[in-house]
């Protein structure tokens, strides 16, 4: 019986159960009176929503984080963000290493699953580098932000604000404690804050495998196809998005309009970066033009790099799909990126992830239009995409969600963070190779 039970607990199931456990423990802690600023217990559904949003590094909130929670509650949220961003298996492996426990093959498989790696080779070494790199980047971000915040608040508070927002932003969570749902709108034209936050978002969204390859580049002098695609797609999307936001919002009196040219550029850059699943905003979301909102939905759905703190279908998935489309339009049999032929398994996986994600967004949007009333359709689509892509940006619908709507978004955030494939592998039985192949079929397409 024991062997059968262990056989059933494949890496996907362990990851799903681990995230569920972390979320419910976090929700319980947030319901404690000491977790709120006024000492009144938070409703369990609100606590569960907050814990899910933090663990899934989303940033959508039904209560104002800065005004609702005490320091204890904020620290609980911060811990959930850190665990969710790096993965609970990273922390578990780190503890095993400290205790001198040997990392088994099953645990290496869990790490491979958590970071979407192609092999178990070097996973423990990578995990250690990830932890060290995270500490260094978050510390630098916290120090820079704290220095800037000292001009606006006492030193102790500035240090705390610097630490909280550095961890939150690096993990692409988007939680803030400025209060009144303001996020970073007060720093829209502050180059120090904007550029520091943008750097944290980009670094956190590249993926730890990419960062590790860049670190080793001095010795290896080579980059994998994955890293080349992530870097290229990231640069193209960030530059293109920033230019488009600048053009779309230049004359908008409620966003970039009142700012000088420097402020306009900073505002456009930040909004070109943030939808890559960071969740922070310097421009009021509800006042953006429809063109910018649609662009934001597109960027949110794509997300960041695989194995990173970001969500979405990932830039590699998008790149493979675009390359496949171009190959079909040119009448080519093979899909080629950077002079490398993409195997059919990767193409089918990319197609599955993208179509699954699209279907989830469509279904959730449809259900929100039923459960929530009196809102513009764009708000439903925006909220559904933000939840699935674990972004955290909102046009204001989150706080007005009904209980059913909140449960729906909780489920969507959870699916978005784990990914449709991981959840699919966790739910379905293990695949077995078929003993025979069925006859080929054909049909008209297009």
In brief, what are we looking at here?
The protein has 446 residues and is mainly α.
Account of the 3D structure:
The protein is mainly alpha-helical. It has one domain (2-425). It is built from 19 helices and two strands. A two-stranded antiparallel ribbon has the order 1-2. Helix 2 (11-30) crosses helix 19. Mean pLDDT is 86; it is low at 1-7.
Pick out its properties.
potassium transport, cell membrane, 63% helix, mainly alpha, globular, transport, 19 helices, disordered N terminus, 446 residues, potassium:chloride symporter activity, 2 strands, two-stranded antiparallel ribbon
End-to-end CA span: 51 Å
Structural class: mainly alpha
What is the residue-averaged pLDDT? 86
Shape, per Cα inertia axes: globular
Number of helices: 19
List SSEs in N-to-C order: HHHHHHHHHHHHHHHEEHHHH
Strand content: under 5%
Helicity level: 55-70%
Residue stretches low in confidence (pLDDT < 50, at least 5 long) are 1-7
Number of domains: 1
Radius of gyration: 22 Å
DSSP strand count: 2
């Amino acid at each position: 019986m024991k062997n059968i039970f262990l056989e059933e607990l494949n890496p996907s199931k362990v990851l799903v159960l681990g995230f569920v456990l972390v979320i419910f423990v976090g929700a319980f802690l947030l319901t404690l009176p000491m977790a709120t600023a006024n000492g009144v217990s938070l409703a369990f559904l609100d606590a569960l929503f907050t814990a899910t949003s933090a663990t899934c590094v989303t940033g959508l909130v039904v209560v104002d984080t800065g005004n609702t929670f005490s320091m204890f509650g904020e620290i609980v949220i911060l811990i959930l963000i850190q665990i969710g961003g790096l993965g609970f298996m990273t922390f578990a492996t780190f503890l095993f290493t400290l205790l001198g426990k040997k990392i088994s093959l099953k645990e290496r498989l869990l790490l491979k699953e958590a970071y979407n790696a192609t092999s178990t080779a070097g996973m423990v070494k990578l995990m250690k580098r990830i932890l060290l790199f995270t500490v260094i980047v978050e510390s630098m971000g916290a120090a820079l932000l704290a220095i800037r915040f000292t001009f606006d608040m006492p030193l102790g508070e500035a240090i705390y604000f610097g630490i909280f927002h550095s961890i939150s932003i690096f993990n692409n969570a988007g939680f803030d404690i400025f209060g009144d749902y303001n996020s970073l709108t007060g720093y829209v034209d502050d180059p120090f804050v904007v550029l520091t936050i943008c750097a944290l978002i980009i670094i956190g969204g590249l993926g730890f495998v990419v960062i590790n390859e860049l670190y080793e580049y001095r010795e290896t002098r080579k980059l994998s196809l994955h890293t080349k695609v992530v870097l290229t797609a990231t640069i193209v999307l960030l530059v293109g998005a920033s230019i488009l936001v600048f053009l779309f919002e230049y004359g908008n009196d409620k966003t970039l309009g009142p700012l000088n040219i420097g402020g306009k550029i900073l505002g456009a850059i930040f909004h070109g970066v943030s939808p890559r699943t960071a969740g922070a905003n310097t421009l009021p979301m509800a006042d953006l033009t429809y063109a910018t909102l649609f662009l934001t939905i597109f960027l949110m759905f794509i997300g960041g790099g695989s194995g990173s703190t970001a969500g979405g279908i990932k830039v590699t998935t998008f790149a493979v799909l675009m390359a496949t489309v171009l190959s079909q339009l040119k009448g080519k049999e093979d899909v080629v990126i950077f002079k490398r032929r993409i195997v059919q398994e990767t193409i089918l996986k990319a197609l599955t992830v993208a179509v699954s994600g699209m279907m989830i967004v469509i279904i959730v949007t449809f259900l929100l239009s039923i459960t929530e009333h009196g809102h513009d359709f764009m708000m439903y689509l925006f909220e559904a995409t933000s939840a699935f892509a674990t972004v955290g940006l909102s046009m204001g619908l989150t706080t007005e969600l009904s209980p059913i709507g909140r449960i729906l978004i909780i489920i969507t955030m959870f699916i978005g963070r784990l990914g449709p494939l991981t959840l699919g592998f966790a739910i379905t039985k293990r695949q077995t190779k078929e003993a025979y192949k069925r006859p080929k079929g054909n049909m008209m397409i297009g």
